[in-house]
TrEMBL record:
Domain Dihydroxy-acid/6-phosphogluconate dehydratase N-terminal: 69-382
Broadest EC class assigned to this enzyme: lyase
Recorded catalytic activity of this chain's protein: 6-phospho-D-gluconate = 2-dehydro-3-deoxy-6-phospho-D-gluconate + H2O
Keywords of this entry: 4Fe-4S, Carbohydrate metabolism, Gluconate utilization, Iron, Iron-sulfur, Lyase, Metal-binding
Source organism per UniProt: Asticcacaulis aquaticus
Domain Dihydroxy-acid/6-phosphogluconate dehydratase C-terminal positions: 409-599
EC number: 4.2.1.12
Protein name in UniProt: Phosphogluconate dehydratase
Binding site for [4Fe-4S] cluster: C157, C224
Pathway where it operates: Carbohydrate metabolism; Entner-Doudoroff pathway
Family statement: Belongs to the IlvD/Edd family.
InterPro entries reported in the protein's UniProt record: 6-phosphgluc_deHydtase, Dihydro-acid_dehy_C, DiOHA_6PGluconate_deHydtase_CS, ILV_EDD_C, ILV_EDD_N, IlvD/EDD_N
Lineage: superkingdom: Bacteria
Length: 604
């Protein structure tokens, strides 16, 4: 076995030490609920009758047997999300597969699944981050019937997978497998889409051209093909051992996808508490699995949203993950993939070039992943260095390509795109922020200049259209966008305008207590700034014209001037809380939510 990289080892050890008390508390709770008999035996006859009432007579008979596991399904199906539309038939398929595996299955419950692509730049985006915690609670409601011996989670997109993970970890005594549906076929190349968006922001093309480009990009069932949060989720589920190996990027329809779903059901039955070798979710998600997830994110240039989601998922398992951990791992984890917005390829091209299996095998060979972990598939991460295929109608796994089939997309550890990963921590007299530099040219990773301060992204866009922004290099500050202010909506709609200014030869950067999309790209963005403006953080005291420096190379974010004078200023008044479109219902969440650096969750 390859020796672990010393930084990986040291970061893992300090996470273990930091999390000793909270992890012990979590595992004690899990252990209280472990059983080696069917969960339903704990129910009263009336409770049991309610569970069995809608089943067929054969399934009722099977359920009465003490050694037949009952698999609970938590689904996030809706037919507005392209990635989730294929789940329409999954419960029916899963029930059939379960019967053939000597098990039963039931849809335990559904969780909401909003589409960030629809709500970008709209009021509904203010509910997006909070939807993750609602999904976690919905998952808990579904599984709290306590009638299941294993669970399957049907979810792919942005906040849905993190929410399902957080909710499932409350049932860490159960084996839980995540079942994806795969990416849509490639449409309009992502760089072409980006060009049209920038041209529209400049007023060079009309809405008809923009709509045509967007419709050609998002055109079928499956995940959007850029490497945003949804596809980063799928990478994480492989890296953390919660998928059937190689399931992430197989297309939605076809025999191979059906075979992988069947394999998930069969494995759930075999891994249940009734089996000879049970494996609960708590046994899979430990400190090593969390570190593997961070490494995968860095090596593939994944979504900045996971600087929020990974700490929240980790905390659900009693594990404390910090921005410093991301930063230190980033220094030793090479960037092996360039997938849009970090390159021109989409996830289908990435998968064809060797995909996650290639990445995992390369990182294992360099001692940059923990191999000796539990996964839902069994012991060890090496199985995830293989890829599934059908041979004579039978599902088998074979080694992923030894060499990348396209080094413009995917590279080995010996020849990375960059010796460092894409996420960095920025610290200074403005607070703590994160930035993603994997798609940012080196000359744009250092920006110093006067700031233009806005309390709303729409105010910036109006100033851009009116030409009322500083000439030359400048820093765009958008504040009151943190979790406590308005739920921390993504500021993705700023990207085309800021990109247009980069194309003019200017240096610009964004500084915000908000977040960017998983599709954030070539503009330097210091985001998730903590403390946020609502808490009176330094960002609330900045004024237009103040000089700010964003230095990604040295991990610094600073107001250049008299820091004591800055802190002595009165904070800007908080804008009125917006309501309508359901936002008023989330006022309690805004009061309870934690800081971005701890995951922006209402639970901790």
């Amino acid at each position: 076995m390859t020796e672990l990289n010393p930084v990986l080892k040291a970061v893992t050890e300090r996470i273990i030490a930091r999390s000793k008390a909270t992890r012990a508390e979590y595992m004690a709770r899990v252990d209280r609920y472990r059983l080696r008999e069917p969960r339903r035996k704990k129910l009263s006859c009336a409770n049991y009758a309610h569970i069995a009432a809608p089943m067929t007579e054969n399934d009722k008979l099977a359920l009465a047997l003490d050694k037949v596991p009952n698999i609970g399904v938590v689904t996030s199906y809706n037919d507005m999300l392209s990635a989730h539309a294929p789940y329409y038939r999954y419960p029916e398929k899963i029930l059939d597969y379960a019967r053939h595996a000597g098990a039963t299955s039931q849809v335990a419950g559904g969780v909401p699944a909003m589409c960030d692509g629809v709500t970008q730049g709209r009021p509904g985006m203010e509910l997006s981050l909070f939807s993750r915690d609602v999904i976690a609670m919905g998952t808990a409601i579904a599984l709290t019937h306590d009638a299941f011996d294993a669970a399957l989670c049907l979810g792919i997109c942005d906040k849905i997978v993190p929410g399902l993970v957080m909710g499932s970890l409350a049932f860490g005594h159960l084996p839980v497998i995540f079942v994806p549906s795969g990416p849509m076929s490639s449409g309009l190349p992502n760089p072409e889409k980006a060009k049209v968006r920038t041209a529209y922001a400049k007023g060079e093309v009309g809405r008809d051209a923009l709509l045509a480009a967007e419709m050609a990009s998002y055109h079928a069932e499956g995940t959007c093909t850029f490497y945003g949060t949804a596809n980063s989720n799928q990478m994480l589920m492989e890296m953390m051992g919660l998928h059937v190996p190689g399931a992430a990027f197989v297309p939605p329809r076809g025999d191979l996808r059906d075979a992988l779903t069947r394999a998930a059901v069969e494995r759930a039955a075999k891994a249940s508490a009734l089996s000879e070798d049970p494996i609960g979710m708590a046994d899979v998600i430990d400190e090593r699995a969390i570190v593997n997830g961070v490494v995968g994110l860095l090596a593939t240039g994944g979504s900045t949203n996971h600087a929020l989601h990974l700490p929240a998922m980790a905390r659900a398992a009693g594990i404390l993950l910090t921005p410093e951990d991301f930063n230190d791992l980033s220094k030793v984890v090479p960037l092996l993939a360039r997938v849009y917005p970090n390159g021109s390829a989409d996830v289908n091209h990435f998968h064809a070039a060797g995909g996650i299996g290639f990445v995992i095998r390369e990182l294992l060979s360099a001692g940059l992943l923990h191999e000796d972990v539990n996964t839902i598939w069994g012991k060890g991460l090496s199985a995830y260095g293989q890829e599934p295929t059908l041979k004579d109608g039978k599902l088998i796994w074979q080694d992923s390509p030894v060499r990348s089939l396209d080094e413009n997309i995917l590279r080995p550890v010996s020849n990375p795109f960059s010796p460092e990963g894409g996420l960095r921590e920025l610290t200074g007299n403005l607070g703590v922020a994160v930035t993603k530099v994997s798609a940012v040219k080196p000359e744009h990773q250092y920006v110093e200049g006067p700031c233009a301060v806005f309390d709303d992204q729409d105010d910036f866009l109006a100033a851009f259209k009116a030409g009322n922004l500083p000439e030359g290099d400048f820093i765009c500050v958008v504040r009151f966008q943190g979790p406590k202010a308005n739920g921390m909506p993504e500021l993705h709609s700023l990207t085309p305008s800021l990109s247009a200014m980069l194309d003019q030869g200017r240096k610009v950067a964004l500084v915000s207590d908000g977040r960017m999309s998983g599709a954030s790209g070539k503009v330097t963005a210091a985001i998730h700034l903590t403390p946020e403006a609502v808490d009176g953080g330094p960002i609330s005291k900045l004024r237009s014209g103040d000089i700010v420096r964003v230095d990604c190379e040295n991990g610094a974010l600073n107001f250049l001037g008299d820091a004591a004078e800055l802190l002595a200023r009165d904070p800007a008044p908080r804008p009125p809380e917006a309501d309508g479109l359901g936002r008023e219902l989330f006022a309690p969440f805004r009061r309870l939510v934690g800081e971005a650096v701890t995951g922006g969750s209402v639970f901790w």
